[in-house]
Design brief:
The protein has 414 residues and is α+β, with helices and mostly antiparallel strands. The protein folds into 2 domains: 111 residues, 2-Layer Sandwich (Phosphorylase Kinase, domain 1); 238 residues, Transferase(Phosphotransferase), domain 1, CATH 1.10.510.10. The protein is 36% helix and 16% strand. The chain is built from 12 helices and 13 strands. The protein has a 5-stranded antiparallel sheet with strand order 1-2-3-5-4, with helices on both faces. Strand 1 and strand 2 form a beta hairpin. The radius of gyration is 30 Å and the shape is elongated. The N and C termini lie far apart (76 Å).
Length: 414
């Protein structure tokens, strides 16, 4: 409109012989105005184009989150992006032969880059409901964390409608693939188990207190601990983790995620989680490592509801060593240390106390592991440790289901 009015004015001035000089001045002014308008249009178009996602497949990520693009990969992610074709070649086009396992996120594949480096690729399932949030959470979080007992994230891929995380490849895979396997478990003597549980404790302490972020994992369990070639444990899978401010001690959620059997009572029943929730999960894992049994394996037992009540019953009777995995009970072996094992059982029972305030911080746990002279308080009855009786009319029924292999549980009174 401005251009049309300007042109009309220009012709009217030119038609008047007495105003030719004025027309030249005004025409020059209008020309400058036209150039300015065109400049603003071009500038606005370029800004709009820059705001669009530049990688195929990133359109469906939440707009409030940082868009994963090649331009902002170092500023927002602190993590390099890999091309889809590079990952596809490394995994032989995601062949079944390279499949390492299935997790809540999707499928994990082994790969080898062209330079020879081995990697593990976690590929988001396209049918995963929780995938986008979990993916973004893990990318933002684990890229900022560096510790010998945390799995290392090498990069990510957001391309061709695919979302993948690329990790260092750990030769011995998950801890549960060893610990709950009848053949492999025999290779885990007490010394190896103690070193593994001590490493997990140090990794958790780093998350809670020593990193630049205060992180609550919320899904610590045997399958989320990986082992490298030296059997060094590394905590993995941070899709459900939450970041706390330094002045925060606990939070509430309506969406309880995690694995039943590892969740603390206050989290499973009321959605309240804190560092002490992770401590409870660690306690369950510690008792599993000592006994060689899964917590949920006692569900149909006649006398004990779960592993916690089983260990507590023997502990009260002064028979703590009777719950120890028979594989490591070798009194003639120098690696079998009964006194140390009893201390670890006591620490495990402290970690699974009913009340969060009665559980130790991970700093205290690490201290108790490292010193045989440090006094350890006497534990009380663990959480979720009610006995089970066929004649009990108030017996509770457990209903559980799995979404993306994330187990949720509700307790209903009969």
């Amino acid at each position: 409109m401005v251009m049309i009015i300007g042109l009309v004015s220009l012709f009217s001035f030119i038609s008047d012989d007495k105003s030719k000089k004025s027309a030249k001045v005004i025409g020059s002014s209008i020309g400058v105005s036209v150039l300015l308008v065109l400049s603003f249009i071009i500038y606005g178009y370029r800004k709009w184009k820059q705001k669009r996602p530049s990688i195929a497949g990133s359109q469906d990520l939440p707009m409030k989150e940082a868009v994963l693009s090649r331009e902002n990969k170092t500023e927002d992610l602190e993590l390099p992006l890999m091309e889809f074709d590079t990952v596809a070649i490394a995994t032989d086009n995601f062949s079944d032969a390279n499949k390492l396992g299935q997790v809540g996120f999707g499928i994990v594949y082994k790969g080898r880059l062209l330079e020879g480096k081995e990697i593990a690729v976690k590929r988001l399932s396209k049918t995963s409901v929780q995938g986008n949030d979990e993916f973004l959470n893990e990318v933002r979080l684990i890229a900022r964390l560096q510790h010998v007992n945390l799995v290392r994230l090498l990069g990510c891929c957001v391309d061709k409608y695919e979302k993948m995380l690329i990790y260092e490849y750990l030769e011995n895979l998950t801890f549960d693939s060893h610990h709950f396997d009848k053949t492999r478990r025999s290779n885990l003597d007490w010394k190896k188990r103690f070193d593994i549980v001590n490493g997990i404790a140090r990794g958790l302490l780093y998350l809670h207190q020593d990193s630049r972020l205060r992180v609550i994992h919320r899904d610590l369990k045997a399958s989320n601990v990986l082992l490298d070639k030296d059997m060094t444990p590394k905590i993995s899978d941070f899709g459900m983790a939450r970041i706390f401010g330094r002045d925060e001690t606990e939070a509430n959620t309506r969406k309880v995620v995690g694995t039943y059997g590892y969740m603390s009572p206050e989290y499973a029943m009321y959605g309240k989680f804190s560092m002490k929730s992770d401590v409870f999960s660690f306690g369950v894992l510690l008792l599993e490592i000592i006994s060689g049994k899964k917590n949920n394996s006692f569900y149909d037992s006649d006398r004990d509801l779960n592993l916690l009540s089983f260990v507590w019953r023997y502990w009260k009777e002064g028979k703590g060593l009777e719950i120890v995995d028979p594989v490591i009970v070798d009194w003639s072996s120098s690696t079998f240390r009964p006194h140390e094992i009893l201390r670890c059982i006591q620490i495990g029972l402290l970690c699974v106390q009913e009340r969060a305030d009665d559980r130790p911080m991970m700093s205290s746990v690490v201290l108790m592991f490292g010193s045989e002279t440090t006094a350890i308080p006497q534990p009380k009855t663990p959480g979720f440790c009610a006995g089970k009786s066929p004649s009990d009319s108030k017996q509770r029924e457990y209903r559980s289901w799995t979404v993306n292999q994330i187990t949720l549980s509700i307790l209903d009174a009969r």
